[in-house]
Amino acid sequence: MGRKKAVVLVSGGLDSATVLAIARQQDYELHAISFDYGQRHRFELDAAEAVCRANHVFEHVVFRLDTSIFRGSALTSDIAVPHNRTDEEIAGGIPVTYVPARNTIFLSIGLGYAESIGSADLFIGVNAIDYSGYPDCRPEFVRAFEDMANLATKAGVEGQRFQVHTPLISMTKADIIRKGLTLGVDYGLTHSCYDPSPDGASCGECDSCRLRLKGFEDAGAKDTARYVTGRS
User: Fold this and answer.
1) Which residue, of 104, 117, 127, 151, has the fewest CB within 10 Å?
2) Residue 20 CB partners (closer than 8 Å, separation 6+)
3) What's the CATH code of the domain at 199?
């Protein structure tokens, strides 16, 4: 009997790279899925490919979505990405970089992928501590999705129990980085910036960059990603 299979949602960012390494440590056969949804920070897809290669995934699928369905988000529409917000501003509500129902859609597609390959385990790098206020990163969302997965699938009805693994859900960004470093994650391969330069350098000023930089500072580690401001 072969190893258990896991479907891991891999964006190419810091968190998903860490989750992929955790699933690898647990000796799953790794099936990664990334999403091309018209995001302005499409450099993350190149990062996802690099991260998957480094982790020797069995299969990496890039799923393309009709970008016209995602409106009103700074990540997919002609809306400015906020820069240099304070910690209080970042924690003050749902930001304009929220993409409508993104994790619900991504997990649903990942669930279909998992059921089709006989996997009961999905991994996602959501976090409820150092995050930008997204409602689909909360533990209650994950629990609700997991319940739905076991009601809405043939495998679930027939007794297979799907589990959505969220190993980072209660970790600080610094803790995530420390964990990844112990697992040999090369964070220089990852891309977190919401508003990169045309050549892919991170801005160092959007919410995602600021959370990332603070995480490395708190972890006492060096961020090897490339920044236009030279802040790595």
Assistant:
1) 151
2) 8, 10, 30, 32, 51, 52, 55, 57, 123
3) 3.40.50.620
DSSP 205: -
54 domain residue, yes or no: yes
Decide if 33 is inside a domain. Answer: yes
User: 10 Å Cβ neighbour count for 201?
Assistant: 18
Q: Is residue 229 one of the residues assigned to a domain?
A: no
- The tens digit of pLDDT for each residue in 81-127 reads 889 888 778 777 788 888 888 999 999 999 999 999 999 999 999 99
pTM exceeds 0.85:
yes
Alpha-carbon gap, residue 121 to 144, rounded angstroms: 16
- Structural domain span for residue 151: 5-219
Number of domains within the chain: 1
Contact, 142 vs 123, CB < 8 A?
no
Q: What is the pLDDT of residue 230?
A: 56
- In the Cβ-directed half-sphere of 193, how many Cα atoms lie within 13 Å? 24
Alpha helices in the chain, H assignment, sequence order: 14-25, 43-54, 87-90, 102-117, 139-152, 154-157, 173-182, 207-219
Structural domain contains residue 123: yes
Helix (H, G, I), strand (E, B) or coil at 26: coil
pLDDT in tens, 126-172: 998 765 568 888 899 999 999 999 999 999 999 999 999 999 999 99
Distance CA 10, CA 53 (A): 12
